[in-house]
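The passage that follows is intended for readers who have already worked through the single-chain material. We present the inputs for a multi-component assembly, then the predicted structure in tokenized form, and finally a short commentary. You are encouraged to pause after the input and sketch how you expect the pieces to fit together before reading on.
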Amino acid sequence: MTGRVVWMHGDGLSVTDPALHAHPDAPAVFVFDRPFLRGTPVAFPRLAFMYQGVRDVAAHRPGLTEVRVGGVAEELAAFAARHAATELHVTRNFTPDFARIVDDLRAACPEVRVVIHEPERLTGYAGPLRRFFGFWKKVEREVLHGDAPARGHR
Amino acid sequence: MTGTPLPADLPDDRLPDVLGKALAGLYTGPARLPARPGGRTEALAALHAWTGAGYANRNFLHGNVSRLSMYLRHGMLGLREVAAHARSVMRGRERDEFLRQLAWAEFYRLVLRQEGARVLGNLEDPKYPARWTPDLPDDVRTGATGLPCVDAWLRHLMRDGWMHNHERLWFAAYLVHWRGVHWRAGYALFREHLLDGDIANNALSWQWVASTFSNKPYFMNRDNIDRYSSGRWCGTCTAECPFRAPYETLEGQLFGGRA
Ligand SMILES: Cc1cc2nc3c(=O)[nH]c(=O)nc-3n(C[C@H](O)[C@H](O)[C@H](O)COP(=O)(O)OP(=O)(O)OC[C@H]3O[C@@H](n4cnc5c(N)ncnc54)[C@H](O)[C@@H]3O)c2cc1C
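Having made your guess, compare it with the prediction:
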């Protein structure tokens, strides 16, 4: 049997988050990032808003949902170990911190496979970007009518 | 094991106290609840309550905008489901205009994916000879600039954790162009207080105003503020108004006429 855990971060505080949705029974954890918050001013209501998001997730999934305060990669490694997990599932976000944390985690516990789920997107656009106007011309039909992505997007 | 566990079921009445203690030293300001509650359940209620009627007036401060940004920011709602809702309840130009705004959010996310940490520095040279200072002035930080409109925008930011898009644009232009402060200081102030504050929309919108991710700087004048605020401040304002001039005059003052 493969033990799985889910890492929930600030971009996916909902049971519909792809990683959470794929593994409703797996233990999930959200970490308030202590080193980040030490160095970056964030007003309390924002943190409370996120907490309310996690609380709502916890109330609506069968699996255990934990909240912790600490260094994210260390907390994830310890969480995976406590649950004897060999896989950690998470939904990608595009922030520079995400990639760094995943690298740190892979370095700290090579025995845990990090499985990255893709986030939901509004469009299928995959080309280069420069100005909104050019982007809009390419995605307009898709966004306005909910059509399948235009050909030649990729 | 260095971390601290927290219960995942704190009710709102205990939340500021317990979370405040657990996060002591890790946040600014008083420990209080957000102006709007977070969570998927609340987000869905807000989405379903929103019909989009009157969105044509979205540029006016009294216009009916969705205020869904904080839910989208934290994934409590997805752009796709909000778009599907809009397609089913809204009509005509209002609907198209709203869907276009969602596309801005998608655009900025994709720019972040493309550029990574580079979005936190100037993506392009500014389009005017800018000499920006790095630090946020104290009167801005405390919301006491003496300009009633600017102080009101700052109050909305700090009290509600949300500002109307036009207030964000005006404030950003004020800080960067009138006060000569680098957009990163404004970005950091927004990140501190906005419930929807993120990297992509926040940094790239600031860069759009500053002209480091657009072809010209965004700026406004008093007539524009008066019009879109429906006369909320200007009629009774006695402050020395830095915005009171025709666009051409301000353009010369702020950008040496070269913008
Ligand atoms: C300097 C500056 C900083 C900003 N920082 C942020 C930020 O940190 N986070 C954030 O979500 N938005 C940011 N915005 C964009 C915009 O102001 C807000 O998304 C919008 O005001 C949110 O209100 P709403 O949900 O009622 O918008 P609505 O008008 O109801 O629009 C619906 C949704 O479309 C998206 N959207 C609307 N306008 C924009 C826009 N101009 N750019 C990108 N997406 C948009 C948002 O997801 C929004 O929730 C910033 C704008 C400026 C000028």
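Commentary: Chain A has a mean pLDDT of 95. The CA atoms of residues 11 and 93 of chain A lie 7 Å apart. How closely did your sketch match?
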